[in-house]
Amino acid sequence: MRKLVASLLALAVLQGCAGAQFALPQLSDAEITHAALAVQGDASSLPRYDRSDSENRDIVSRVGDRLRVIAPPLCAHAEVKRCAWTIRYVAEDEVNAYASGSDEIAIYRGLLRHLKTDDEIAAVIGHEIGHHLAEHVEEKQDNALIGAILAGLVTGGLMALGGYQSPSYDPNAAQRMVNDSMQLGAAVGAISYSKEQEREADLLGAYLIARAGYDLRAAGNIYKVLAQMNSGHIHSGWFDSHPAGPERIAAWEKAIAEVEASPDRLPEID
Ligand SMILES: [Zn+2]
User: Fold this and answer.
1) C-alpha count within 13 angstroms, C-beta hemisphere, residue 142
2) How much is the pLDDT for 253?
3) Are the C-beta atoms of residues 208 and 67 closer than 8 Å to each other?
4) Edge-to-edge strand order for the sheet containing 104-108?
5) What average pLDDT score do residues 41-53 get?
6) pLDDT (tens digit, 9 = 90+) per residue, 169-181?
7) Ion ligand 1 — residues with CB < 5 Å
8) Looking at the predicted structure, is the pLDDT value of residue 232 above 70?
9) How far does the centroid of ligand 1 lie from the alpha carbon of residue 259, in Å?
10) What is the DSSP string of the chain?
11) How far does residue 177's CA lie from ligand 1's centre (Å)?
């Protein structure tokens, strides 16, 4: 029975995971290998930029405002209902940033400490806005819901097959089992974004921050910093959900070429 539930859940997660909506840059092995050379050292050799919480708050609101102002053409192109995001600074040392709800973004002190310029900070916020533009948060919630329903159905169905006839059948315990398995199903569906969704958020972020006049090359340093932190095994919410490696660096290079070819263009819908 456990096997059956697990395989149905896996199926639900696979089917629920949407691919990218926008055309992602294609990468060759050579480009990824080349990008890997840009990652030198590990987390211990990363510079730190300690700022006060009030300085951090100022930077986050300054960058957030600048991105919000230029976002409407991208929002219209992506056909999203909301084009204003609440960007919250979290004064905690965890290395983290995330998008949640319908319009929320959080960025932590622990991550800002490793970012030097507004361009880099714009890349992180732009990436999280990218998740909203591509409606990944909703897709994640859909996955969680599909997982929960399927797990509940499977458990309920199996219990109905065997349980009702049993003299020791306890309807309360049965309901608890259904609830537990639904929670498990929801958790499986909600674990993280797919790699494609991450790259899609990177691409949309590139379009967004370029329109706001940030320097894409300077901003791209964030992906080197992340890869370096990753090799130093700093674990955080950001890394649990954000694969950091040479692919992202290589994809960013491609995104720069795509965006710079025509600054007014919008990302191609796949
Ligand atoms: Zn992400």
Assistant:
1) 11
2) 92
3) yes
4) 86-90, 104-108, 97-100
5) 85
6) 777 777 777 677 6
7) 198, 201
8) no
9) 20
10) -HHHHHHHHHHHHHHH----SBPPPP--HHHHHHHHTT--S-GGG-------HHHHHHHHHHHHHHHHHH-HHHHHHHT-S----EEEEE-S-S--EEEETTTEEEEEHHHHTT--SHHHHHHHHHHHHHHHHTTHHHHHHHHHHHHHHHHHHHHHHHHHHHTTTSTT--HHHHHHHHHHHHHHHHHHHHS---HHHHHHHHHHHHHHHHHTT--HHHHTHHHHHHHHHHHTT---HHHHH---SHHHHHHHHHHHHHHHH-TT--PPB-
11) 33
Chain mean position to CA 33: 24
How far apart are the C-alpha atoms of 163 and 171, rounded to whole Å?
9
Name the token pair of 145.
């819901």
The pLDDT value recorded for residue 246 is: 82
15-37 per-position pLDDT tens digit: 444 578 888 888 888 888 888 77
Q: How far is the centre of ligand 1, averaged over its atoms, from the C-alpha of 220 (Å)?
A: 15
